[in-house]
UniProtKB/TrEMBL annotation, chain A:
It comes from Medicago truncatula (Barrel medic). WD repeats lie at residues 12-50, 65-97, 109-150, 154-185, 204-238, 308-344. InterPro entries: CIAO1/Cia1 (IPR028608), WD40/YVTN_repeat-like_dom_sf (IPR015943), WD40_PAC1 (IPR020472), WD40_repeat_CS (IPR019775), WD40_repeat_dom_sf (IPR036322), WD40_rpt (IPR001680). It comes from the Eukaryota. Belongs to the WD repeat CIA1 family. GO terms for biological process: iron-sulfur cluster assembly. Keywords: Repeat, WD repeat. The lineage of its organism: Eukaryota, Viridiplantae, Streptophyta, Embryophyta, Tracheophyta. This is Probable cytosolic iron-sulfur protein assembly protein CIAO1 homolog. PANTHER family: CYTOSOLIC IRON-SULFUR PROTEIN ASSEMBLY PROTEIN CIAO1-RELATED, WD40 PROTEIN CIAO1.
Automatic annotation (TrEMBL), chain B:
Residues 35-103 form the MIP18 family-like domain. GO terms for biological process: protein maturation. It comes from the Eukaryota. This is MIP18 family-like domain-containing protein. InterPro entries: FSCA_dom_sf, MIP18, MIP18-like. Signal peptide: none annotated. It holds the Pfam family FeS_assembly_P. It comes from Medicago truncatula. Belongs to the MIP18 family.
Length: 344, 154
């Protein structure tokens, strides 16, 4: 069994407050286009970082400032890589477009009553979802000319909603909350009639404290969630979406990974290669993989490696880049972003 | 702010005698709970012109430190069981102690067992880092916290 190591490629400084989140631009990192990612911070700015093709090192290409008036909590590139959505504690979501090398704010989405926590684009880039401490999830339709129309305001969570994520292939939306639940939302009647089709809570082997994040595997039939209850949970579905005659297939709990973390797990991300990484409040990154030597009743997933002191403070976000040899990026309370390579 | 005080008649205790702390040499990694207590005891209560020490909200026993793990636990006792100012007290403690410890130390704040009607939900809110960060960006809350941290001690 080869020994794998998470090697630090680079430490990126620049933000002047904690870095909450980041997002790799999906239209970069292949065909000679250098890898790009965006990061967002308590310093109210968003930074764009680009990799140099010869040195492989990243540098800050742009700082998006003077738009959000409070912490920028999350950012997401559209699938085409042309637009960047940024969600802020100032209760707005800004949409940015790269216009001849300069990033311009082309739209501001208002409506949430207080802090917006997360933003996500669906696979086709036609829908955007946002969520907030106001307990609601909003779905916006992308119109021509960078206009965004709110098509649904989803109530159901009883507390602060921490993250929203669209399924990787189907137009099904997932949200997770301070109310300890994960909710699944789908458009029932095909006419903007969005409803909660499933709630994954304590009765379903769900989390017993705030659920901070969720992530899908490449094929979209499994999902991993992380929580303040110090566990990771893996869920699966028989088929995704409304297949002919099948209707919506519910998600069910597969396994709980307990005893690996002793402080809140803020982030989890599943790579296309089947490894999921967690970032936690104990400053460590952990990688997990399917357990091939699984015996009956044995653990289905095992710890591949633990990187202690990956940062000097809490890790808020981890994300694998796409592409054949993915890099892992991590964002921390220490104000830095680190890029890692998984090597043997 | 609210018209009626949550606790109109708090019990005020005498301040504990201050013993000057000697200039002992501590290693960079050693955090003394009594030093922390000295630093926070005079935080003013959000509602009354008395310190958290005088109202017995904080005492020397409030602070515990695990240097090996780098963990600090602060347990405080609100003056009444339905106190809605608990989150403000939590914010005051976090702001006051913000740059006090080495960066990797983790601070948890709880209400003492049995001291609050909604103990579990209050403790959850006191330790949700994102909620704390957002609260401190709220100008009204920030102002209240700053007022509580203005030192009255000479």
């Amino acid at each position: 069994m080869e020994r794998l190591e998470l090697k630090e490629v680079q430490k990126l400084e620049g933000h002047t407050d904690r870095v909450w989140s980041l997002d790799w631009n999906p239209a970069t990192g292949h065909a000679g286009i250098p890898l790009v990612f965006a990061s967002c911070s308590g310093d109210k700015t968003v930074r764009i970082w680009e990799q140099n093709l010869s040195t492989n090192l990243f540098s800050c290409k742009a700082t998006l400032e003077e738009t959000h008036t409070r912490t920028v909590r999350s950012c997401a590139w559209s699938p085409s890589g042309k637009l960047l959505a940024t969600a802020s504690f100032d209760a707005t979501t800004a949409i940015w477009e790269n216009v001849g090398g300069e990033f311009e704010c082309v739209s501001t989405l208002e409506g949430h009553e207080n802090e917006v926590k997360s933003v996500s684009w669906n696979a086709s880039g036609t829908l955007l979802a946002t969520c907030s401490r106001d307990k609601s999830v909003w779905i916006w339709e992308v119109q021509p000319g960078n206009e965004f129309e709110c098509v649904s305001v989803l109530q159901g969570h009883t507390q602060d909603v921490k993250m929203v994520r669209w399924h990787p292939t189907e137009d099904i939306l997932f949200s997770c909350s301070y109310d300890n639940n994960i909710k699944v939302w789908a458009d029932e009647g095909d006419s903007d009639d969005w409803q909660c089709v499933q709630t994954l809570g304590e009765p379903n082997n769900g989390h017993t404290s705030t659920v901070w994040a969720l992530s899908f595997n490449a094929s979209g039939d499994k999902m991993v969630t992380c929580s303040d209850d110090l566990t990771l949970k893996v869920w699966e579905t028989e088929h995704v979406g409304m297949q002919s005659g099948g209707g919506f297939a519910p998600w069910r709990h597969v396994c709980t990974l307990t005893g690996y973390h002793d402080r809140t797990i803020f982030s989890v991300h599943w790579s296309r290669g089947g490894i999921f990484a967690s970032g936690a409040a104990d400053d460590a990154i952990r990688l997990f993989v399917e357990n091939n030597e699984s015996q009956v009743d044995g653990p289905l997933y095992k710890l591949l490696l633990k990187k202690e002191k990956a940062h000097d403070m809490d890790i808020n976000y981890v994300q694998w880049s796409h592409g054949e040899k993915p890099l892992l990026a991590s964002a921390s309370d220490d104000g830095t972003i680190k890029v890692w390579d998984l090597v043997s | 702010m609210t018209l009626g005080l949550i606790n109109a008649n708090p019990i005020v205790h005498a301040k504990k005698e201050r013993i000057p702390r000697s200039e002992e040499s501590h290693s960079d990694h050693f955090v003394d709970p009594l030093d922390i207590y000295d630093f926070v005891r005079d935080i003013r209560d959000p509602e009354h012109p008395y310190s958290l020490e005088q109202l017995n909200v904080l005492s020397e026993e409030s602070i515990s430190v695990d240097d090996k793990l780098g963990r600090i636990l602060i347990t405080f006792t609100p003056t009444v069981r339905h106190c809605s100012m608990v989150t403000v007290i939590g914010l005051c403690l976090r702001v006051k102690l913000k740059h006090y410890f080495p960066a990797h130390y983790k601070v948890d704040i709880k209400v003492s067992q049995g001291s609050h009607a909604n103990e579990e939900s209050v403790n959850k809110q006191l330790n949700d880092k994102e909620r704390i960060a957002a609260a401190l960006e709220n100008p009204n809350l920030r102002q209240l916290v700053d007022e509580c941290l203005e030192s009255n001690e000479l």
